[in-house]
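Dear Dr. K.,

Following up on our conversation at the group meeting, I've run the structure prediction for AMP-binding enzyme C-terminal domain-containing protein from Phycicoccus elongatus Lp2. I'm pasting the input sequence below exactly as I used it, so you can double-check it against your construct before we proceed with anything downstream. Let me know if the numbering doesn't match what you have in your notebook.
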Amino acid sequence: MRGRTYHPPCCGPIINGHPDVARSALTGPPGAGPAGVVPLVVVELHPSARDRSVAIAAVLVELAARHEATAGIDRFEFIDELPVDRRHNAKIDRAALARQVSAGRIG
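The predicted structure tokens came back this morning:
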């Protein structure tokens, strides 16, 4: 939802709670006009679920709508592997992800 602030620490646990999601990252490519950004969640699925991304996207939209922290998020893009910080494999490299989104490689 444009004009609303979403917080990654609040959104991540909700989306990551889906059994087919390995991890996810909230980001927002520049939106049109003064309304700000359009929230986008980039999702890394477990390898066994990658062929079902379209169906999972629909479920994630419904899941997001059921929680105040994620209500209004309806854009989910899938990536084979989220970029991670070289020093901490579990930590998503949000700067690298933002560059991929800005370059049009995601979303």
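Two things stood out to me. Residues 50 and 80 are 8 Å apart (CA to CA). The longest helix spans residues 53-65.

Best regards,
J.T.
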